[in-house]
């Protein structure tokens, strides 16, 4: 399909229903949008630095391990350091994980899976699950707003065909968007960063997006947090997955569609 035609359909085609925030954001020039995003990014880095400075004094051997984990080994080393201070500085440790997780989600930076596993290692299961779900929903919502500033230009340039396909799916499920977002979060059909960036561009409202994210990330987070309880024995993130995990996620995905199927049956019956 011709790229110009696809871009036009994403921007103002029949499948695209712009929200008020998207319309307002479109009035801001690209240079101003970039400047705002840069300010937000620098402010976020300063917040991370402030949280780090509030942490108790570390031993010299521990300092190199207190950083964003990019792989499982770094997550293990960070977990061992934080575990030493967790009992005495519980809220400082939890707030540090909270802020870092939101930072990664807001700017679509890889690594949040390691923080999910780390949360399972550091905190009681249900607290870790609530923490990860809240961080995912807040971070995705902040990414949603940032995408309102720059998302349309990026999507039209790099993902026009894929965004057009999702725009059709959103229009098809516009009366069941909450269940649809939950289904997408549970299943791997679309990457989370793509959902966060594209959702405001094609007109997904914030409320079903945020709530669907909070509920939808729970099942996969359940698996990661459970794996975190045996962090010291993991050799790769794939060790967290099993046939039981796949079956559980498939069951949750099916459950998320039950209200939609029932609604369709009722509509067909009364129509």
UniProtKB/TrEMBL annotation:
The ranges of region (Disordered) come to 1-22
Which top-rank group of organisms is this from?
Eukaryota
Q: Tell me which GO cellular component terms the UniProt record holds.
A: membrane
| Cellular localization per UniProt | Membrane
User: Is Calcium a UniProt keyword of this protein?
Assistant: no
Q: Tell me where the transmembrane regions lie.
A: 34-55, 93-118, 125-150, 177-195, 207-228, 240-262
Q: One matching Pfam family, short form?
A: VTT_dom
**Residue stretches making up the VTT domain:** 109-229
> What keywords are annotated for this sequence in UniProt?
Membrane, Transmembrane, Transmembrane helix
InterPro entries xrefs? TM41A/B (IPR045014), VTT_dom (IPR032816)
Describe its membrane topology: Multi-pass membrane protein
- Entry's family note: Belongs to the TMEM41 family.
Which PANTHER family has this protein been placed in?
PTHR43220, TRANSMEMBRANE PROTEIN 41B
**Protein name stated in the entry:** VTT domain-containing protein
